[in-house]
Amino acid sequence: MRKKSLMLAALVMVLSVILAACGGSSDKSSDSSKDSGGGTLIYGRGGDSVSLDPAAVTDGESFAVTQNVFETLIRFAEKDTTLEPGLAKEWKISDDGLTYTFTLQEGVKFHDGTDFNAEAVVKNFDRWLDGDADKFPYFQSMFGGFRGEDTAVIKEVKADGDNTVVITLNQPQAPFLKNLAMSPFGIASPTAVEKEGDKFGDNPVGTGPFEFVSWKRNDSVTIKKFADYWKKGLPKVDEVVFKSIPDNSARLNALKTGEIDLATGISPSDASSVEADSNLQLIERPSLNVGYLGMTVTRKPFDDKKVRQAVNYAIDKEALISAFYEGKADVATNPMPPAVSGFNEEISAYPYDPEKAKELLKEAGYDGSKALELWAMPVPRPYMPDGQKIAEAIQKNLEDVGIKTKIVSYEWATYLEKAAKGEADMFLLGWTGDNGDADNFLYTLLDEQSIGSNNYTYFKNSETHKLLLEAQKETDEDKRNELYKKAQEIFHDEAPWVPLAYSTPLLAGKSTIKNFYPHPTGSDIFDTIEIK
Amino acid sequence: MTTQQTISEKEPREAGPWKDAWRSFKKSKVSLVGAGIVIVFVILAIFAPWIAPQGINEQNLSERLQAPSSAHWFGTDDFGRDIFSRVLYGARISLWVGFFSVIGSILIGSLLGILAGYYGKWVDTIISRFFDIMLAFPSILLAISIVAVLGPSLQNALIAIAIVNIPNFGRLIRSKVLSIKQEEYITAAKAIGMADTRILFKHILPNSMAPVIVQGTLAIATAIIEAAALGFLGLGAQAPTPEWGKMLADARVYLVNAPWTMIFPGVAIMLTVLGFNLMGDGLRDALDPKMKN
Fold first, then answer.
1. Which residues of A touch B (CB under 8 A)?
2. What is the torsional sign of CA A415, A421, A424, A429?
């Protein structure tokens, strides 16, 4: 008996050694330099895309890929959100702000060989206009609605010859061009859309520098250089692989071992170890985000403004930031970051004052009998590297003023879905601006028309609603900024959020990576990046 | 050795099986060390509130990740909490989970084992196959799925660990009952018309306790590790509970910068498990020498 089991144990050990050896040899690291061309760029990120049809999604990880496959009529500059010609080489706006005339680039082809022209652009807009909020949620929130609806901004889109597109609006919209430049409004090949139908998100075809190759769910998306790309000499690399590695330290490890070339979502606490490594470089993404603690105002006790203000006083934001962002962030004061025009500098954050918080809670008659749910994000986000830790610190802050909480977490997609339904008492979340406009923060996150999509707090206020709608129509920059500044004052007083941080997201890459400029919106185009 | 022998010689020989067992247990230095470790941890756990310099959740973010010093013997974690205090309170949690999950497994396992062993036939078939099915799963996987159903919390982790260990005790008791059932005193008891329940609880159960105690001690060690594993995976104790496995998971990020956040909870797990294992080995030798294989 004994001998037999010994033999068995020995056999198991031998087998496991052999297996381990096999595993090691198949685990090849990417050696991009040996390729004769531009090589392969392997980009490690925290999560997988939801769909590769940009019009159908609102999440950053989907845009990260589609930004390279599709192009928009107008694009953002390489390093900021100033507007540059994209698929449209020039545009004219009528004096009443209602008619936009775009002249298109010539000689552009989609990846499937279809010609890019005015007709293709019109077909794209028609597709969106004939859709609904379920199909194209971002179109709904950026352009007010769909064909024929009262709130819809776009009236009609027409081709004028082969290279001119005329867009007529129902009402002027100040950030209209900025909105058009956003990733979700990349122009898709009409032939492919027709052919693929609902499956277009699995097999995207655009005009971008890279064409789609394959998508292994929850693992990787591969795109390769489009040989007939209209900008000659671009892109520099032959292939880009987007690899999902959810754990921050595992991702950094993969970078250190050479399994990936570039990693996003570097924990602030790892920054020094990246800087100390001569094979690596630390890259900062310009900040265009806000991380916050939202309070669902339709749920007790947060229907009371005093309780919401008390929570604002109770949280020690400075300490949170120095501990969990390692200084790579500033204390947030408003629901939008200072880089965005219209930011109200006169507002300062609620100071850390537990006594004042207790006082306010007392006034509000809060009894603290029931533990409130405090939701913490399960994944690292650019605006909040570690939601769980921050939740734990906030839990303690709140306990000190007599608010009992229970930390709750769900899988990321479920988290967003449930929070959007208003099921959380308090939740951690954040937002990275997609077009650098105040509208994309204040209206998108806190207007009553955004309830159900991105206004998770269910905050409703007739005054801010009026201000925000007015600002959308106001084309005079100074007047517009005034409106936004006023709205921020109301948000500060009503306190549906505790704004926590404006963070500088960190990336790390091999030192061989050149010409990479992370975009503030979080969607990078890898056309100029080189590996040397 | 010699002193021990003289003591035992002085003692009258009338002692029962328990005294015999104690005599043989204390002969082994290693098991005494094990018992010593266990006792120390039990004392620390009981008196944690008086020994610990700080509470479990006294955060001080300006003192985060400090190396061990005279102010903080085991250093501080990423919230600036005193790790020494948290490890002490962690002992409470680990011992509590270890002890009560094993008690739970023993209660249910014994009941099922006795039924299977004593009544045999289809009862035995059903219960034994049920045990086989449970044993077919890797225990931690089974525990994870149970927690997944019940929802992650310390209490549910305890329940999951208890359930996972049921078949071990069940099978042990069943085999013991099967052999005791054949003994003549049981036949005698039956012959004088003793009721089944009485036979089971008065004769069979007490006589099958020795291996259960041994197995139980060893199972506490396993249960502590399983609770730590569940805590590490985020399926056991939730923040800010200072469960050792959870502390390890939180410390993972600081492995290089602040290794003390990981070392002390890790050593605590190692020591308690070692203590219970050594003690269990000693008990086995003392109570049931036949179990040695």
1. 2, 248-249, 267, 269, 273, 316, 319-320, 322-323, 388-389, 391-393, 395-396, 399, 407
2. positive
- Identify the closest residue of chain A to B241 by CA–CA distance: A392
- The beta-carbon neighbor of B62 closest among A249, A319, A389 is A319
- Which tokens belong to A467? 């201000």
User: How buried is residue A31: exposed, middle or buried, by Cβ count under 10 Å (0-12/13-18/19+)?
Assistant: exposed
Instruction: Give dist(CA A179, CA B37) in Å, integer.
Output: 67
Task: Answer left, alpha or beta for residue B120, where phi above 0 means left and psi between -120 and 50 means alpha.
Answer: left
Could you give the C-alpha distances from B179 to A228, B118, B130, B204, in angstroms and in order? 83, 10, 21, 10
Q: pTM value?
A: 0.77
Rounded to a whole number of angstroms, the CA Rg of chain A reads: 25
DSSP designation for B50: H
Best to test chain B binding among A2, A396, A400, A406 (most B CBs inside 10 Å): A396
A2, A269, A323: residue with CB nearest B61: A323
The bridge status of strand A74-76 relative to strand A40-45 is: unpaired
d(CA A176, CA A154): 10
Picking from A2, A269, A396, the nearest residue to B59 by CB comes out as A396
A73 touches A167 (CB < 8 A): no
In this predicted complex, what is the ipTM? 0.71
Three-state DSSP state, A158: strand
Token pair belonging to A439: 């509208």
CA angle in degrees (0–180, nearest 5) for A375-A308-A521: 60
Query: pLDDT digit of tens for each residue in chain A (532 aa)?
Result: 445 555 555 555 555 544 444 443 333 344 444 445 688 999 999 888 888 999 988 888 899 999 999 999 999 988 888 889 999 999 999 988 899 999 999 999 999 999 999 999 999 999 999 988 888 888 888 888 888 888 889 999 999 989 999 999 998 888 899 999 999 999 999 999 999 888 899 999 999 999 999 999 889 999 999 999 999 888 999 999 999 998 888 899 999 999 999 999 888 888 888 999 999 999 999 999 999 999 999 998 999 999 999 999 999 999 999 888 888 899 999 999 998 989 999 999 999 999 999 999 999 999 888 899 999 988 888 899 888 889 999 999 999 999 999 999 888 878 888 998 999 999 999 999 988 899 999 999 999 888 877 899 999 999 999 999 999 888 888 999 999 999 999 999 999 999 999 999 999 999 999 999 999 988 899 999 998 8
Angle at B282 between CA B279 and CA B288, to 5 degrees: 125
Chain A residues near residue B64 by CB distance under 8 angstroms: 323
